[in-house]
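Task card 7
Instruction: Convert sequence to structure tokens.
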Amino acid sequence: MGRAGRATAERPLEGRTIVVTRARAQAQRFVELLEAAGARVLQAPTIGIIFTSVNGVAMVDRRLAARSTAWPAIARKRVAAIGPATADALAEHGVRPEIVPSVYRAEALVDRLRAVVTPGDRVLLPRAKETRDVLVVELRRLGASVTEVPAYQTRRIEDGVVRLREALASGAVDAVTFTSSSTARNFAEQFSDQERRAWRGRVAVASIGPITAATAAEYGLPTDVMPSEYTIPALARAVADYFARAAWNAGRRPRRSV
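Output:
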């Protein structure tokens, strides 16, 4: 891995270089958290989100505005959000989700919805155009009528791949972070199997959750760092903790005798 500087308890990532693959429009908070911990951040967004949003909230906002409809029309309905970031985005529009699972995955949301969804219920599902079908399949099994609206779609961005390849090959990168399966997939497919194998052991892989980690593993990139809470702040803390432990362990290693 890259050479660490003088890491401290307050800045455990001092001297570390971390690659952030999150879409640039959504990466600011993650970058700020990593930089506050001392990291040098190399932004290499692998997806661009059309209607840049948090899980489609911005898209819904635009559609409502185009139809001269206000958010109270949504607030009067029963609303569920897959995680706190989405819930916060909805709260900015005066919408308080009734359901936000403690584990931020589709399966956990389905588990919470089983208690409230009954046959014949109509459910609106704004989501990414390319995504897993867990919610649609399970909601329909519960007897709900699901209207699926593609809120945004992702496309691969290859800007800066030459610079990124050079940084990885030279050993200047300490970690690569993945915040979704799309970032893991799009990042990995820019490199050969041989290149990816060459990073193992010197570049840590940090994934926001098990679904993302599974996608990274499909490309020979097993995850070294994963938070117990699948959020951006938790991922930033997990990366900082990982390198803090690495620095502490390095300090305890006995020196070789000459």
